[in-house]
Write a structure and sequence with these properties.
Spore Coat Polysaccharide Biosynthesis Protein SpsA, Chain A, 2 domains, two-stranded antiparallel ribbon, 11 helices, 37% helix, globular
């Protein structure tokens, strides 16, 4: 064999190895770059007196959000708001949460704010037939920007939803619930406050359950804080910034519930524990159902990759108990 042929064979054998090495290097660089940017510190602005001047002269000036109204009267309307963007099909878990709000809160109205023309599926029919005249559909448009700043392409739906819930409460007042927030018992205890929030891990503001008068000062300041919009961070403007730039300086603007609104991470109790009786002590529980894929155990997620009417009757974890108490029409009577 000639030296030239030997050289060609060596090059031919080396090429696949070189390609693999190059691919590995590119992947490592991608991981390092992603890790670098994900670890970049988030900066918060210092106290801004001009921001708080925007709520000077409010009807709630000097209002005590520790005790609420002096006579215990309600200043938050007993109406519940849900937001549905871009999806006409209502999944089982969302239906459970709507029905739980109807049953346990007994609101005068439940509003579906949506850009959907018509909802579909058996769970929609269940909701419509159960709620009757309590249900009202409000058509809204999915916003594309805030204060002239385009929403993030990656987080558009979530960031638009964060802004829209603030605007809904500023217009109507009431109780805003994420579509996977489960009302355990009446939230009336908080309707005597200007605004009530829960705290998630961080600690940051939990947007999953919000109870507010439409003139609540914090709503106006929260929306105003979006003039400094960060499109690259999922929860910066929604939960981190308002806590670190507004409530850290003026905690009296809201009534804070550290745990019993259930907006912090409860996935282990909901989907991993075999028993969790204490859920009944909460006022509400955020089910975090969209995040089960990485919060649940691999084995559990293998057996129950989704939770709906096809498997909820036999689902043995605490969420199964919660769901069946509200919506189990399709389960055998002995379940």
């Amino acid at each position: 064999m000639s030296a030239l042929n030997i050289r060609k064979r060596r090059i031919a054998r080396a090429c696949p190895r070189a390609i693999i090495i190059i691919i590995i290097i590119i992947l490592l660089l991608f991981i390092l770059i992603k890790k670098y940017y994900s670890q970049q510190p988030i900066h918060f602005r210092p106290y801004d007196p001009k921001l708080f001047e925007r709520v000077k002269g409010s009807i709630f000036e000097d209002f005590d959000n520790e005790t609420g109204t002096k006579d215990g009267s309600f200043i938050v309307p007993n109406q519940v708001h849900f937001l549905f963007f871009n999806s006409s099909f209502i999944p089982y878990v969302h239906a459970v949460c709507v029905l739980a709000a109807f049953r346990n809160q007994r609101p005068e109205k439940i509003f579906f704010h949506t850009n959907v023309v018509e909802f579909t599926g058996e769970h929609w029919l269940k909701i419509k037939n159960t709620l009757g005249s309590v249900l009202e559909i409000r058509n809204i448009t999915l916003p594309n920007e805030i204060f002239g700043q385009k929403f993030s392409q990656n987080f558009h739906l979530w960031h638009a939803g964060d802004v829209t819930r603030i605007r809904i409460l500023m217009k109507h007042g009431g109780i805003f619930l994420d579509n996977d927030s489960y009302v355990v018992r009446s939230l009336d205890a908080f309707r005597k406050y200007e605004m009530t929030i829960g705290i998630i891990d961080g600690p940051y503001l939990g947007t999953q359950v919000l109870i507010a008068n439409k003139d609540a000062r914090f709503l106006k300041l929260w929306l105003e804080s979006y003039r400094d919009y960060n499109p690259d961070s999922w929860y910066y403007n929604a939960g981190q910034k308002p806590m670190r730039e507004i409530l850290i300086y003026k905690p009296e603007l809201v009534h804070t519930v550290p745990t019993l609104l259930g907006v912090h991470t409860l996935s282990e109790r909901l989907y991993i524990w075999d028993r969790w009786e204490n859920w009944r002590k909460y006022y509400s529980v955020h089910l975090i159902v969209r995040h089960r894929r990485y919060m649940d155990k691999v084995w559990n997620y293998f057996w129950w990759p989704y939770l709906d009417e096809t498997n909820i009757c036999d689902y043995p974890k605490p969420f199964g108990v919660m769901a069946r108490e509200i919506y189990s029409d399709f389960c055998p009577k002995n379940k």
